[in-house]
Design brief:
alpha+beta; binds iron/sulfur cluster; Alpha-Beta Plaits; 12 strands; 307 residues; two-stranded antiparallel sheet; globular; single chain
């Protein structure tokens, strides 16, 4: 018995073309995703070896946090619980972390992922002065996500709150800015620090990576008009490198690590210090903790001033 062959009509040819185009695009997309992932894992693998081989340096918290990262990255993403800790007693308000953050994430004059506001409490001679470094706190129940249609803001398994930079524009970008109780979101207007000078500098035009995707602030894959905020430098973290603000902090006030690992410095800090979280009363479970000792004296001033 001979089976009937389908006729090669123009409709069938068009269907085949669509199918092959879809296959090509899907294949290209998958290949790009895979190659990004492999590149990240290769970098992480290479750097992981370097950190594990570092000698023990008692008291060197950066090396310890770096080695904590190696252990966390050896486990599946779902089992990691990234947290950031701030010891305001060690913060001098130098703003080096803000500059490092700007350089890493290429933010313009209209906003920054990170701020270091200053609060004063008391009166002379009993004056307390405090600096409260702040950025997106990666809320476990983020109010920003409730302000826009489902899917535009996603909570990853490791705790990072991920923005869809393609869709979070216009009214949605504005809604997110208004919904965040930490003032951690800004809309990128594409301005540059060197606008109006003889030459826009290359560092303002360069491409950069957010959650595995390449962006710029000029054209094509541009973030102009998009809502932006801190992601704990998770692209650096997944390449086994600490967030820019942590590795840059001259006072050693910034900590980062995996709270799911009881032997990490972050976990140890949380066990051995009283910790507070800003806007804990909202029940949104922020992932940034502050060592509370000094804050106890000035909390009523610092929270109101900075957030
Ligand atoms: S700090 Fe603001 S932007 Fe970050 S997750 Fe919470 S509500 Fe969203
Ligand atoms: S770099 Fe460190 S000491 Fe300086 S402002 Fe930032 S957190 Fe404070």
């Amino acid at each position: 018995m001979v089976s009937e062959q389908p006729k090669d009509t123009s409709e069938a040819r068009s269907g085949r073309r669509t199918f092959f185009r879809w296959m090509t695009l899907t294949g290209a997309g998958l290949a790009a995703l895979l190659s990004r992932r492999l590149a990240r894992e290769a970098r992480a693998g290479a750097l992981r070896g370097v950190h594990s081989a570092l000698p023990e340096v008692p008291g060197n918290e950066l090396i310890r946090m770096q080695q904590d990262l190696d252990r966390a990255l050896a486990r599946p993403m779902e089992s990691r619980r990234w947290v950031m800790l701030v010891d305001t007693r060690k913060c001098s308000g130098c703003q080096a972390c803000v500059i490092a953050c700007r350089a890493e994430n290429v933010t313009g004059p209209e906003g920054s992922y990170r701020r270091v506001p200053e609060a004063l409490a008391g009166s002379f001679p009993f004056v307390a002065n405090i600096f409260m470094p702040t950025n997106c706190v990666q809320c476990d129940d983020p109010p920003c996500a409730r302000a826009v249609p489902a899917g535009m803001i996603r909570k990853r398994a490791d705790g990072i709150v991920e923005f869809d930079h393609v869709r979070l524009r216009g009214q949605y970008a504005q809604a997110v800015v208004e919904a965040c109780p930490y003032r951690a979101v800004h809309v990128d207007e594409g301005k540059r620090f060197t606008d109006g000078t003889p030459e826009v500098q290359p560092y303002e035009k360069r491409s950069f990576t957010i959650l595995g995707q390449t962006w710029n602030r000029n054209e094509g894959a541009t973030l102009q008009g998009a809502a932006r905020k801190c992601h704990f430098c998770v692209d650096l973290v997944e390449a086994a490198t600490l967030p820019a603000c942590v590795s840059t902090c001259i006072g050693g006030a910034m900590y980062f690590g995996d709270a799911a690992d009881p032997s990490s410095l972050a976990s140890e800090m949380m066990r051995t210090h009283r910790m507070m979280r800003v806007h804990q009363e909202l029940g949104i479970q922020p992932r940034v903790y502050y060592v509370e000792e000094k804050l106890l004296q000035v909390r009523q001033y610092s929270c109101a001033t900075c957030h």
